[in-house]
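Researcher: I've been going back and forth with a colleague about how ABC transporter permease might be arranged in three dimensions. Neither of us has a model we trust, so I'd like an independent prediction. The organism is Ferrovibrio terrae, in case that matters for your notes. Sequence below.
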Amino acid sequence: MSQLKIASFAGAAVLPKATPGIYLFLRKLGFYLSLGYLVFLVLLAIFAPWIAPHTPTLQNPSDVLLPADGNYLLGTDDLGRDVFSRLIWGAPLTLYGSILAVLVACCIGLPFGLIAGFSGGWIDAAISRTVDTMLSFPAIVLAIGVTGVLGVGQTNSMIAIGIVFSPTIARLVRGQTLIGREALYVDAARCFGASSTRLIVRHILPNAIQPVIVQVTLLLATALLAEASLSFLGLGVQPPQPSWGAMLARAYHYMEIAPSQMYAPGIAILVTALSFNTLGENLRVILDPTRRR
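Model: Here is an independent structure prediction for ABC transporter permease. You can compare it with whatever you and your colleague have in mind.
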């Protein structure tokens, strides 16, 4: 009887703890708020030409560094351009840049991760060492170096960021492939004569997609910050096109006399990156059954 009690207590000790109700509420609230904000941002980017009250590149020398008023909702910058209109027009450029960078990262990282995990041997070793080498450098420093090779501009800078982020995808996919190739259903398909390509595309890749979806959402936030950093340094979106990072760079020079010019792009970058991160963390919980309690 005593042994039975000890065994029951031992079994109870390893049960996962239930998530507190307040935490579940806050997690769901954060998920819906972040999702709602991102949907709003996408709609804002689509309808920017009809929402923006002024042309974002129109300069008004007589209205330089004006505070917020009825005509200029967020004031004007050092060239007399409406900050509110530039903020709205910066949304599609920011989303385009972040999505392009993540697409490039997936197009490079997915195949290399699958090849490394499925092939093994010297191919896996070569790809893994390359991935480790790239991950050893600070991402923004490596992105600046690649941008210097490709040339300045938003498209080139986002391709550079995508190249820098591709090792993260490759490492994740390689790990999932190593697990998948040892699964019983993969062995069964191999016994029935399935080719390596069929095994990868039909059986291994679908099971590796879920963690990739979560990682992609988190990378969107990182790509947003990287795009803002490169634009701040003058390597991303080029004038006179509006970019949140470029707006911060111009407002930085007038921080003492017009500090409010930094608030709008800074808050937009912060809230958007935080929303992507919150969405990614919630997707991780939704897609992973062990985290749902």
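Researcher: What would you highlight for our discussion?
Model: I'd start with this: The radius of gyration is 24 Å. After that, consider the following. The CA atoms of residues 59 and 79 lie 6 Å apart.
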